[in-house]
Design the sequence.
DNA sequence: AGCTCGTCTCAAACCGGTTTGGATTCAATG
DNA sequence: CATTGAATCCAAACCGGTTTGAGACGAGCT
């Protein structure tokens, strides 16, 4: 079971057995092979805890579930986490999932991670424009990587979807279909992604000389989507560009409630390509970001950071692809 | 930083400092207090890895993301995991998220956990009637707890939603509304939860002397829900009882595609109370299971198991509450 | 004074690995 | 034959804690 007992049973020292298994050259090839066979036979695996103690590392990366006051519901979070985790596992690293206790501020989780020395690096999601978590981690020199960007990106590594490009392309397409009156329904004010998506939206309207129309911001759930849509419909837009699918779901409801037909009277597009988008009435246009790809990139960047890489060398922007469905059509005549 | 340096800086031995912080009585009260203050001042935290090494435990619980060949999308998984994790954190335990690598059988993940000695206990979700993971964990004596039940529950601990009770109550209600022709759209054949829900459905129909109607089983996603509904509509049911919300979403689409009005011509009910259910057209009736509660129960059971408790003493069934919305109404005249 | 007992403290061993710095053996070299 | 050096192997130290077993000291008792 233990290195010691294995060594004793072979009449060798712990040192030799350890080095044999690690493949060092200063062990006779014949001995190396003998040790390997014996280790294999009893299915020996070095105790990871002991290895970590000597290495002085935890071989662990933490990902923090964003806390929301309400229900946490983050449908795509697992996809991302699972992808990160399975890439990390290839390097014998564990991914731990941490979340704030009820009522506890989110930053407290990061504090626990820092001074409990429970992880070699942290993954931060749902970035805000001005993010205290980023500042805290930077100050405490714990390597971290963001899913999403933030305002002060000096010295930070990130992987992000190209929200700007996605929303720009989508909005251009709506313009080309003939839409002239738009509204943007965004996520929470401070989140970077929502601002970024809004940027792409504005940019496309700008180049066509069209006015931005109402640009609202609230929570990124269905309820808030419905409320924003209700407010926006006052200015008779023919297209609602929504920062997330959940907002778009709410918008669909509001459009119907106003006696209008989504996809005919008012076009709606979201972002995330949740599986259900293909099954709403009408099916929702949306944008897709390959989270498996994002996860792998994040995991690899994390490994590099732990190895001492410069965070600024580990940034990437992943393409966002619009998916057109019946919730978008030409504006009514 | 380390116990040793703290001890030296105070002119005490490691032993005394360690015992003082642990609150042993054989340290002079005055010394104990002095040590506590000094430790506090430099914000000392014992290195968890070192503690684990002596304790011979990993202080870690693993939860395995169920692998599906397709996209993993498990919208409520995070809610459960976050709840488990935050309860475990209160006892200084970490929750690690593991998932199979692409193409790897799910059981391999459990094997890695067992012989890599990376966790003190495992959480198993998405139980199958006949579950090789359960058998494997039992055989290898790694404590585990299931979210859901399985066929051979001897020696296993579980927390599960009362799918039987929920579907029974819901079906009774449909009967009382006047429905007489039903269909059940289930999840994958081998999953316990789907079978259990079907059981509740059958039981309610049985007691009213009604026939079960078509009972289908396939994947629990929207697409498969649509296909099953299409097939079931052949026998002109007035109510579709669906094992999950995602199946129900697909069913709503199929009903509309057949030129029928959901909630008027055909009632539909799902299970999970995904946030979007309140925003479909019509809003979807569903059933709710309090996952925060489930998570806490599971975490506490896990802690007990690790402490050596008998698994069979740690089983609970959590209430499932139907939520009635416009997708359910009386049958057409 | 000699003994016992309680109180407080600490050196050393241990957990299970890795790494350092020899030690031993033997063949090749001068 | 003495030296050098390569090839092997290993004892001991280390990572940072916890626990065991014992020692030092003073008070209380005979």
Sequence:
């Amino acid at each position: 079971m233990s290195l010691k007992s294995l060594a004793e049973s072979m009449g060798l020292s712990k040192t030799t057995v350890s080095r044999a298994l690690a493949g060092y050259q200063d062990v006779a090839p014949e001995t190396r092979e003998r040790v390997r066979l014996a280790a294999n036979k009893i299915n020996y695996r070095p105790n990871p805890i002991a290895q970590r103690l000597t290495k002085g590392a935890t071989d662990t990366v933490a990902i923090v579930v964003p806390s929301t006051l309400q229900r946490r519901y983050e449908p795509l979070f697992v996809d991302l986490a699972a992808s990160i985790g399975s890439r990390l596992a290839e390097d014998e690293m564990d991914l731990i999932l941490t979340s704030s206790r009820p009522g506890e501020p989110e930053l407290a989780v990061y504090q626990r991670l820092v001074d409990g020395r429970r992880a070699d690096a942290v993954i931060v999601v749902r970035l805000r424009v001005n993010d205290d978590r980023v500042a805290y981690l930077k100050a405490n020199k714990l390597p971290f990587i963001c899913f999403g960007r933030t305002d002060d990106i000096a010295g930070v590594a990130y992987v992000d979807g190209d929200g700007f490009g996605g929303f720009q392309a989508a909005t251009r397409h709506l313009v080309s279909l003939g839409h002239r009156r738009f509204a943007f329904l965004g996520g929470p004010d401070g989140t970077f992604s929502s601002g970024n998506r809004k940027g792409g939206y504005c940019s496309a309207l700008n180049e066509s000389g069209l006015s931005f129309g109402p640009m609202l911001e609230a929570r990124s759930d269905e309820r808030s989507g419905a409320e924003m849509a209700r407010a926006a419909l006052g200015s008779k837009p023919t297209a609602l560009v929504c920062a997330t699918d959940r907002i778009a779901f709410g918008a669909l409801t509001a459009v119907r409630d106003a006696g209008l037909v989504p996809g005919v009277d008012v076009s709606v597009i979201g972002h995330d390509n949740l599986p259900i988008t293909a099954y709403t009435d009408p099916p929702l246009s949306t944008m897709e970001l390959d989270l498996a790809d994002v996860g792998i990139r994040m995991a690899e960047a994390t490994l590099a950071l732990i190895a001492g890489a410069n965070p600024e060398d580990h940034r990437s922007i992943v393409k966002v692809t619009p998916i057109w469905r019946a919730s978008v059509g030409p504006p009514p005549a």
Chain A touches chain B through 58 residues (CB under 8 Å). Residues 60-161+291-319 of chain A form a domain with the Rossmann fold fold (CATH 3.40.50.2300). The first helix of chain A runs from residue 3 to 10.
